[in-house]
Amino acid sequence: MKLLIYVAVLILGVWLWRAHRQPPSKGQPPVPGKSKSGALPHEMVACRACAMHIPAAEAVVGKLGSYCCAEHMNHSES
Question: How far is residue 47's CA from residue 61's CA, in Å, rounded to a whole number?
């Protein structure tokens, strides 16, 4: 009988402790569009010749679109 009382008191204590504790602080909410390192994601484009995705800043732009290299641009537009 004593064991049953101890278990009931223990369960009640744990329940009260969990009900009254504060949730862990998460800090500031994440900013949409930023990674954990703080860098913004790069805009990606697909090469019209091979469909490989590359950052737009590294793409070679031709008359018909973006390419991954000058060879693909020359081959595609000739």
Answer: 10
